[in-house]
């Protein structure tokens, strides 16, 4: 820990911040299966679209892939020990569909379910609440070969898979997230092809988006049938709040386009039962095929919404209305600070998006299921990783949460992305998001300064809670 950080803790700044959170607030960390597990050829796991994509030359930075990743499949117990050391109250992980059903349907691999059951039991033994994401992008390749998310059938296969996982773990998992980031699945995966499966098909992109939402809707009742009464079931969306670069009417117009595309595409169907009115036209495509009953399934009540937020966009209006995904995004913004991903650091965006969700949709409960930053970390080769910018990022974003809470937002928890460094999709291992450093050569884990800071902060929170009760 840097001297500056120590001083700040000593002077009680973080304690005062911690004291502003309500009782029962969950402090967690998040990961995803393909990004950390490795062991892709073990215990009968099937091939996922990310194995295929990463093996395709030119798709992932330096040809990196998830075959070893952070070796979590083999170091799970050690990783849970680390979480306990950090004092985490919850851990969000994802389940690799191809570990459970190698072909995406039919035959179930017992070893796959056993692994996640062991993980859940290990977490519970340490008093850490498991939050399971059922789909964080590793679609079984067999399903992709049949058309993947372009096909309605994939949604039905997902619901079957979701049910069989819920049957096994439903009595123990505290939070269920059906799908992670439909926007990324549809747009990055099927629209512009920078994520698996690497398709470039504008119409297909919105069809895929609809099928992903249908998968969520179909899975909801199937999961609910098996989970215990206190378990919560929801979905996680990514948000990038839009701000105007100036006050011209063109800017207001384009900002609304960027907002429909970046934020409302999936919240409107979830909470209002329809897609944003002009979205598909503004994307230059037809409405996806929507069958009778789909929107009712998609908009069935959820217990919580998971919010992933890293940054914002600033829009400057163009003379003629652009396609919704081609608005002029100002970058770099003069005077702004950026992470290694090139994402602007803008904590107020997190407050704003939470308040907007509360006001626009009256969302019953919210969790920030991802927030964090990639920076260049310096490991001293020993026990110390200095990452002062991540400490600042986390503190400032946690402070941003208190501003949402003060405005009545039903925010119940925060998960930092990520527990540990991992395979950052198309960026491979070049971007480190962890509060725990991974030395990939030895698979050694080293808690970064930010991890120590987060652990101290959680401890401060617990102490202030005890004092309030006393
Ligand atoms: C999100 C993903 C997550 C991680 C972060 C940086 O879009 O859900 O897996 O890669 O971005």
Description:
With 470 residues, this protein is an alpha/beta fold. It has one domain (3-469): Alpha-Beta Barrel (TIM Barrel), CATH 3.20.20.80. The protein has 17 helices and 14 strands. The protein has helices at residues 3-10, 13-18, 33-36, 49-54, 72-86, 97-100, 110-125, 141-145, 152-169, 182-191, 202-224, 249-272, 279-282, 294-298, 347-361, 388-406, 449-469; strands at 26-30, 90-94, 129-135, 175-180, 232-239, 242-244, 304-309, 313-315, 366-370, 378-379, 385-386, 411-417, 436-439, 444-447. The strands form 4 sheets. The protein has an 8-stranded parallel barrel, surrounded by 6 helices. Strand 13 and strand 14 form a beta hairpin. Helix 5 (72-86) packs parallel to helix 7 (110-125), helix 10 (182-191) packs antiparallel against helix 11 and helix 15 packs parallel to helix 16 (388-406). It is globular. The protein starts with a helix and ends with a helix. The model has no long low-confidence stretch (mean pLDDT 97). Bound molecules: beta-D-fucopyranose. Residues 32, 35, 180-181, 184, 238, 308, 370, 417, 424-425, 433 line the site of beta-D-fucopyranose (FCB).
Task: Please report the distance between the alpha carbons of the first and last residues.
Answer: 31 Å
What does the largest sheet look like?
8 strands, parallel, barrel
Amount of helix: 40-55%
Question: So, CATH architecture?
Answer: Alpha-Beta Barrel
**The CATH topology:** TIM Barrel
Number of helical segments?
Answer: 17
Bound molecules: beta-D-fucopyranose
